[in-house]
Structure formats: C-alpha cells, structure tokens
Specification:
Largest sheet: 5 strands, mixed
CATH architecture of the largest domain: 2-Layer Sandwich
Pfam families: MarR_2 (PF12802), ROK (PF00480)
CATH class of the largest domain: Alpha Beta
Distance between the termini: 9 Å
Shape: globular
Bound molecules: zinc ion
Organism: Brachybacterium fresconis
CATH superfamily of the largest domain: ATPase, nucleotide binding domain
Keywords: Kinase, Transferase
Strand order of the largest sheet: 6-5-4-7-10
Family: Belongs to the ROK (NagC/XylR) family.
Order of helices and strands: HEHHEEEEEHEEEHEHEEEHHEHHEH
InterPro entries: ATPase_NBD, HTH_MarR-typ, ROK, ROK_cs, WH-like_DNA-bd_sf, WH_DNA-bd_sf
Strand content: 15-25%
Structural class: alpha/beta
C-alpha cells in the first residue's frame, strides 16, 4: 500500500463525506450534496469525478424540473467494494462480509471450543476470512478484527489481561495481514460496535456511548462525531469502575468492579441486581461525558434486554431529576449478534477514506 500524504487525507475525508451521504440510499445531486456538506458545487463536481473514476459512485440519470439545466442524480455503487469483519471471542469467531454500504452479504460463525495458541488462532482467522472472501464481487479492501480488550489499536497488538493468557502481546494485525496479504485493522470490540451502530443510524450518534456486555463489560464513546480512544486506547473501560466498595474480586486486582459484580449477579441468577449494575454504569457514564444517546449491545444484553432497559431508564430518570433539560435516549443495538463483526468491517471501509494510515498492509 502506498504511503498516504496529508493531501490524500484531505481528499479522502471529502470523498468519505460524500459517500456517507450517498450511502443513506436516496439518489444525490450536486446541489444537494453542496448544501449538505457546506462546500461549493464546483468542489462537489471534483469529488464526484474522483469517486466515479474509482467506480464508487454512478450517474443514474437527469430530471428536468422547470426551466434551466436538468438535475443529474448519482448513487453509490454498493457492489464496488467489500470488507470482511471478524468478531473474535474466547469461544467463537463470528464473521461477515459487507458491501460498500455496510450491508451484510454473508455471515459465518465458527465455535473455537478451546483457547487456541496464537499460530492456531491465526490459521483459524485466516480460513474464516478466505472463506468469506469468496462471497460477493468488488475489490476486497481488507479485514477488520474486533475483540475484547485490552487492545492497542495503533500498534495492532492484543495487550492481554493480568491472568495467564496465551494471546498476550500477540501482534495479531501483522500476523493476520501476512497470512492474508490484505490490509488488517484490529480494534476493541466495543469501538467496532459503535462504528457499526453509527453506520446503521447515520448522524444520530455524534454524542453517544455504546455499552457492550459480552463476556466482559466495556463502552465506546463518540463525542462531537469523533470516536474517542484515549492515550492508551483505553477510553471507555467502564467495566473496571467500582460500583460496590469491598465487593466481588475482579480479574484486575480490585474489588467491586462493575464487570465482576455484573457477572457474579448473573451467575447467581440475580438478574435484577445485574440490571442495576448496568444502570449505575450508564448513569455514571452520562454524568462523566454528557452524551445524549446510549446504545446497549452484546450477547449478555439481548437475553435480558427488557429488564435491563427498564432499569437503566429508571436510574437515568432518578439520577437526572434535578436537570430536566438533560435528555438521554437509551436504545438497543439494531445489529443484534452481528454488531461487532459488521462494525469491524465498516471500520475498514471508513479507513479506506478518512484515515488510510490506520490500515497496515503486508510488508
Ligand atoms: Zn476490575
């Protein structure tokens, strides 16, 4: 992959902005895009020309509306590009291949059964990705891999937990890119999930938190339209905030962490307390970063979602009673169990434009 220059990145961001409007589905016009993106029609012409040269956008016809020049309409070409998304957990790999609009073309799920050593794991992921690469048409841009943290997004390394962990320190991004000869992107499951959800609900999640409850409990933040990562790719690690002093021991060494309390409650069959733990986490998060939407996702949420959503809404109402001007909408993810895999694939699509330096190709 060619090194990108600052000018490429500016052009990439413009192209990405036009594609983001076009992928909402309706045909777009030069004047409509100029208005939506607050740039001149001349600039839009240049961007559209670039996108058409690359086969990403196509002209679909002209419509005459009164006197004057007829309006030309364009639409995105979904089949022009593809990306693969893999959601890795200790138990399984859930994979999807998506088109340029983020629509799923195919999904595959593979139970791993046991904790594989790194070389075996890479072989498993490679096989899954190669299998998905057979589906659909259009250029395959790369593979996004989303997994529970701690993950170093910029280095492409799984940092691992304090427990004995065969994957700790593994440069998963580089190893997988070498095997596949494709660009690979590695990210936290919660952040991939937030990107996936933002693609499903364009423009709605500019100030939002996604709380993900799988084996662990984490969150991802989008503030002012930007995904927040933090100094060590650790922003949003709400699973290790303490909800009960002197509570259940946690793998991190402390006691009463939200993640440990939540898991212990579910294991004891106390769904009400589990829901309260999640509600506490959400209210604290809203207090800390001032978001207007909270999305809940993850396998452990879907099973109990009604009770959990009720508990969170009640806790927010109680917690924000003194500030009636603060409105927070709590939503369930629209993507179900595909959420993290789809989000990982959408991250690859995004980085093709806005931030191409984040993708690391082979060699
Ligand atoms: Zn902890």
């Amino acid at each position: 992959m060619r090194e990108s220059t600052p000018l490429d990145r500016v052009a990439g961001a413009h192209d990405a902005a036009v594609l983001a409007v076009a992928r909402r589905g309706d045909p777009v016009s030069r004047a409509g895009l100029a208005q939506a993106l607050q740039v001149t029609p001349q600039a839009i012409s240049k961007i559209l020309g670039r996108l058409m040269d690359r086969g990403l956008i196509a002209e679909i016809g002209t419509v005459a509306a009164g006197p004057g020049k007829p309006t030309t309409f364009y639409r995105i070409v979904p089949s022009s590009r593809r990306a693969i998304g893999l959601h890795l957990t200790r138990a399984r790999v859930h994979g999807v291949v998506v088109d340029l609009t983020g629509e799923i073309l195919e999904r595959r799920e593979l139970e791993i059964g046991r904790l594989q050593p790194v070389d075996e794991l890479i072989a498993t992921l490679t096989e899954q990705a190669r299998d998905l690469a057979q589906v659909g048409q259009g250029e395959l841009l790369g593979v996004g891999l989303g997994m529970p943290g701690p993950v170093d997004w910029s280095e492409g390394v799984y940092r691992g937990s304090a427990q004995p962990d065969p994957w700790r320190g593994a440069p998963l991004r580089r190893l997988l890119a070498q095997e596949l000869s494709l660009p690979v992107l590695l990210d936290h499951d919660s952040r991939a999930a937030l990107v996936g959800e933002a693609w499903s609900q364009p423009g709605l999640l500019d100030d939002a938190a996604l709380v993900l409850v799988e084996d662990g409990l984490g969150a991802a933040l989008c503030l002012g339209g930007m995904i927040v990562r933090g100094a060590h790719s650790q922003a949003g690690e709400v699973g290790h905030t303490v909800v009960r002093l002197g509570g259940v021991p946690c793998s991190c060494g402390r006691r009463g962490c939200a993640q440990a309390e939540h898991r212990a409650a579910l294991e004891a069959g106390d769904e009400e307390y589990a829901a309260q733990v999640l509600a506490t986490v959400v209210v604290d998060l809203v207090r800390l970063v001032d978001v207007d939407r909270v999305v809940l996702g993850g396998r452990a949420v879907y099973a109990q979602h009604e009770r959990t959503m009720d508990a969170i809404r009640a806790a927010l109402e109680e917690g924000l009673r003194a500030e009636p001007w603060v409105h927070v909408e709590v939503m369930l993810s629209t993507r179900g169990t595909d959420l993290i895999a789809v989000g990982s694939a959408c991250e690859v699509l995004e980085h093709e434009y806005g931030l191409p330096q984040a993708l690391v190709g082979p060699g």
